[in-house]
Known about the structure:
- The chain is built from three helices and no strands.
- The chain has helices at 12-21, 27-34, 38-51.
Amino acid sequence: xxxxxxxxxxxxREREVFELLVQDKTTKDIAGQLFISEKTVRNHxxxxxxxx
Length: 52
């Protein structure tokens, strides 16, 4: 995804989180798989929602 100026809308990590979300993974599953905290997962989700 890119904005009108050609910049990427999501960071690489946000993209990883997004891909796992669409696979119906929980925040706990995602945190474990990416070796980050559940709070960090929720922050990435929140950032994605503000971007869209």
